[in-house]
Amino acid sequence: MSLLIPILITVIGASTPILIAALGELVVEKAGVLNLGVEGMMLVGAIVGFLVVFLTGNHYLALLLAAGAGLLTSLIFAFLTLNLSANQTATGLALTIFGTGFSALAGQGYSARPVTLMSPLFPPELATHPVWRIVFGFPAPVYFSLVMVVAIWWFFKKSRLGLILRAVGENDLSAHSIGYSVIGVRYMAVMFGGAMAGIGGACFPLLLTPQWAEGMTAGRGWIAVALVVFSSWRPFRLLAGAYLFGLVMTMELYAKAGGGPLAVIPAELWSAMPYIATVVVLVLISIRRDASTNAPACLGKPFLPTN
Amino acid sequence: MSFRLEKRPEPSKLMIYTAPVLSVLLTMVIGAVIFSLIGFDGIGAVREIFFTPLSNAYRWQDLGVKAAPLIIIGVGLSIAYRANVWNIGAEGQYIMGGLAATWVALSTYGMTGWWILPLMALAGLVGGALYAGIPALLKTRLNVNEILTSLMLTYASVQLIYYLVRAPWRDPMGMGFPQTRVFSEAARLPTIIPGTIVHLGVPIAIVVALVAWFIMQRSVFGYQMKVVGAAPHAARYGGFKENRTIWLAMLVSGGLAGFAGMLEVAGPFQRMVPSFPTGYGFTAIIVAFLGRLNPLGVVFAGIVMAITFVGGDVAQTSIGLDSAATGIFQAMVLFFLLAADILVRYRVRRVGTAPAEARA
């Protein structure tokens, strides 16, 4: 029990950035767009979040501006793929290369400069008992991610706009023919995904390691994309998947800290574990059923109404 | 007055070749503007990144050495992308090729013989191909997305380097540094121009591109890749099996990436070090697109990207611009190329002033 609570808290912390970015990508893909630039947008969010905290000390402003930076970055992708019908796979890759370079350049000279971690949302008096720490002990992005899981679930299940967005992702030509703006809806979705990726990226310096390190998201953006496939485009499964990955990453932390039986496995293998786990998870869901059956039908295809 | 895009009856041949040139030129212009706006010496940055490597004869050797792996990996990727197989894990396959070649070099340490280098080359090819075989197997058997698996395996292979150079392969005389011992003479790639760093890999890269071009133009293999990529239905009709194509595309692109890894470890590095992942595998994705998925185009694109790498180093020492700027310029080239590609399929028509003509 004494170990379980800290482990749970670490798991939830480690999962949150991936969960937030993956929720954004879920909405993007539901609209029929495949944005593989999540990793790049997260890095942009991470550096902007870091710089804002470093300069102002305001974590909420950092999250807000990181969201804005992610959104702006996603506009490059939106313009190329939606207006110019560029190949979505290639454009997403270009976005990741861009975000990696941009964040490294903007963060030049800032590595190893410490910032403060974000403090819990609720007053510490509420979280005195270990069990209450699980409920009240987290900084705001953790609660934000959980609220977004429910909100996005509700959005797709119950809201009219969610229905339109799904229609655009399932059959863009029909949605277009009954008068919905396919490009407009997809712009909204891509921008939302960009903002979420920006927030998710900012969580790295704000919640996990209070500093800037080049490429600090270390492929978590790609894992977020894989989680969307894993979840078969369902928000609550996404939550479960993200926490599963948080668990793997937490085991790595404990193993590297010299924790008993886990330390038998080389540290490098622990570091490789999230990526290996991603491959294994993708394999498992493919064995279980055809994962692609649940994918939005227009995923990754450009919208060409005139043809 | 406004502009409207009008679909061309068939893709413009002229624009196919103009778009890459346009994208590089636009990158220089817009790059200079953006870098000036954010407070750098924009024109200086563009000059140092794109022109200094060309005007300085001493830098030409660097260009050759940097272009060689980009061309070899880029050729492999262009074949895969032609077939619509999205191998983006070339960096990992490059690493596994380098590791396999290192294994041969370490096992033959102290030996002499002409056969050591060819054996290392074979190991590199096989190492890269086998690693690309994992996504190929998962894709053909279980329909698992090759983009995600090949990329995840790249992150895993980086950890494998760290493990090997820290533990089993660590140089016993290396004062604890995480790296292998320097390879014996027989396991090092010879330089071909005395007094320079230009090694045998540079002419090999050109040969690889020429052979690949010939194969893509003239063989059933090349035809199969192109048909499956361009018209999957027609390909199935023609008897080309999709799975076979995926396997071929992954093995060829992975094998070439692994071969490039062998050339790097036996050439510039001469030992395995943690900094072996140099990003060539990712930049080669841009090289493949910029070269229009054509092996000969890839040679030019590889040189252009090599210029930005060498220029990035120049800009770092001369004007203190972080080498990360290289990545931004490389990404911009790809952005502008993808944007310019719309002109291959569409033409820009002015509408408003002459509506009758526009409708005609």
Question: How would you characterize this protein structure?
Answer:
The complex is a heterodimer of chains A (307) and B (360). Chain A has twelve helices and no strands. By secondary structure, chain A is an all-alpha fold. Chain A is globular, with a radius of gyration of 19 Å. Chain B is mostly helical. In chain B, helix 4 crosses helix 10. At the A-B interface, helix 4, helix 10 and helix 12 of A face helix 5, helix 6, helix 11 and helix 13 of B.
Write the layout of secondary structure elements.
The complex is a heterodimer of chains A (about 300) and B (about 350).
Chain A: H1 4-30, H2 38-56, H3 59-83, H4 88-106, H5 130-136, H6 140-158, H7 160-170, H8 172-177, H9 182-208, H10 220-230, H11 235-256, H12 267-288
Chain B: E1 2-7, H1 13-37, H2 42-55, H3 60-82, H4 90-107, H5 116-142, H6 146-166, H7 201-218, H8 220-230, H9 232-237, H10 242-269, H11 280-290, H12 295-319, H13 324-340, H14 342-345, E2 346-351, H15 355-359
Helix pairs in contact in B: 1-2, 1-13, 2-12, 3-7, 3-8, 3-10, 3-11, 3-12, 4-5, 4-6, 4-10, 4-11, 5-6, 5-10, 7-8, 7-12, 11-12, 11-13, 12-13
Q: What percent of residues of chain A are in strands?
A: under 5%
Number of strands of chain B: 2
CA-atom Rg of chain A in angstroms: 19 Å
Mean pLDDT of chain A: 90
Structural class of chain B comes to: mainly alpha
What are the low-pLDDT stretches of chain B, counting only 5+ consecutive residues below 50?
A: 354-360
**N-to-C SSE string of chain A, H for helix and E for strand:** HHHHHHHHHHHH
Q: Figure out the total of helices of chain B.
A: 15
Backbone shape of chain A: globular
